[in-house]
Amino acid sequence: MFRVLARIEFQTRAPQTALTWLTSFNLSRSAHSLPFATLEVEEVSGSQPAEVYNLVQGKWTGSSKWNTLVDPLNGEPFIKIAEVDENEIQPFVESLLKCPKHGLHNPFKSPERYLLYGDISTKAAQMLSLPKVYDFFTRLIQRVAPKSYQQALGEVQVTQKFLANFSGDQVRFLARSFAVPGNHLGQQSHGFRWPYGPVAIITPFNFPLEIPVLQLMGALYMGNKPVLKVDSKVSVVMEQMMRLLHYCGLPVEDVDFINSDGKTMNKLLMEANPQMTLFTGSSRVADKLATDLKGRIKLEDAGFDWKVLGPDVQEEDYVAWVCDQDAYACSGQKCSAQSILFMHENWSSTSLLSKMKDVAERRNLGDLTIGPVLTLTTEAMLDHMNKLLQISGSKLLFGGEALKNHSIPSIYGAIKPTAIYVPLEEIVKDNNYELVTREIFGPFQIVTEYKQDQLPMVLNALERMHAHLTAAVVSNDPLFLQKVIGNTVNGTTYAGLRARTTGAPQNHWFGPAGDPRGAGIGTPEAIKLVWSCHREIIYDIGPLEEYWEIPAST
Q1: What's the predicted TM-score (pTM) here?
Q2: Closest to 415 (Cα-Cα) out of 458, 455, 372
Q3: Active site residues
Q4: Cα separation of 117 and 481, whole Å?
Q5: pLDDT, tens digit, 9 for 90 and up, residues 465-503
Q6: Are 59 and 82 in contact (CB under 8 A)?
Q7: CB atoms near residue 163 (< 10 Å)
Q8: Can you tell me whether residue 69 is helix, strand or coil?
Q9: Rounded alpha-carbon distances, angstroms, from residue 216 to 224, 376, 412
Q10: CA 329 to each of CA 22, 147, 369, 524: distance values in angstroms, whole numbers, following the listed order
Q11: Which of 402, 369, 403 minimizes the C-alpha distance to 386?
């Protein structure tokens, strides 16, 4: 099934090199053929299933067990995954163990690899900028994690811009060092960013391309050797991206790619003992891994993300639209999705809620602006809704029904965009708080209202939350912004009239705060924090003073 892909040899880094390579790609391929791909997106079906392989020690391999995935829109078996079981992990363990703790490259070892990865990023960014390539990945994302074309395309575009950001010399700039004068002639201390060596990356289903690519490339830039596991429901996307990266010059031995269940991956981590693991996913699994790995982990886990509307009411249509995008885009399956909305009482006399309802009701399965929920069933979400409605004063604002006239398999969820009003006084009660602040990874949000003198109660509710990923403070009142921002902790907080909770672009830090295990993504600061550690080297070469003598012992 595999195509033989010629290894791209890097020549001198002349300005024409990447352009010549890209022109060659455009001239040598038809509009219906991609040199890296092993599938055609629209042809993947029960009669022509895609096959997803593993990559270990530079070779694509199958496994003794093939797991079949069903199409999340119609239930048809359409992808076969070569899932590695516990008895087949040894090649992956050996591959990680071969990598020394000082990494594949560092400032004193193979520094030309910093340039190599700048070139790889240049070529991969150019590939993803081609319409036939970005359309391929956009449609492939839609097949396995159904979302609107624009939402899927946005994920590809962020990935492309990230790669462009780290083209050329930008990779070696990540390893920039500093020096401090010493106490005497010949002494200087130098600080360096140092790789961990063997590392692991575990990423979820909801962003099949963006999260794994950004974290994988960050790990590689800094000199690490990663094993990458993406949720099997969507791993076909990253398998195809790995092939694109190989086509762009990524050495095939630099990354291992594994399909497995959680138990098998856990055993791999225990036996290979990577120096650092990046986990993006649920808080429950994150806490287990933190214990198993003795703290050698960075986390970007769950987020019950909040939005506070300030006292200055303006631009109702815009605020309603952003609330809808934050809560229901990608069917609410974003770790940054708006989970709860705190409205200042001044908004109660406006038509905000009715406008939110109107915008939400435009969503439909036809264009995938609403779609299947891949981690919760319809029954589980509606059961949670019914429990909330038993709280005194709560009410259904809109939604609250299963989607109709569809063929989404019952193992997945399918409900209309839903909003439940719960009084603030009830939310903060001990017997309600845990239920209200349970994250539902679907098109579901809580709405409440607070009076001017109840802002301290709102801030207390925010303080009690456990996950601090994203937040939005919608106000242009500088004193209000100052008050809320100064008394909260969320790592990615948007402030101002246009504030949102969602959005993880390549141009700013995205990650939680308030947890020393917290990971970031996308920026130089995030890459250096997650994928390198500090090493200090103190040069002390002399000379000694001309008449130096051995001093008295101390």
Answers
A1: 0.94
A2: 372
A3: 300, 335
A4: 41
A5: 998 999 999 999 999 999 999 999 999 999 999 999 998
A6: no
A7: 25
A8: strand
A9: 9, 28, 29
A10: 34, 8, 7, 28
A11: 402
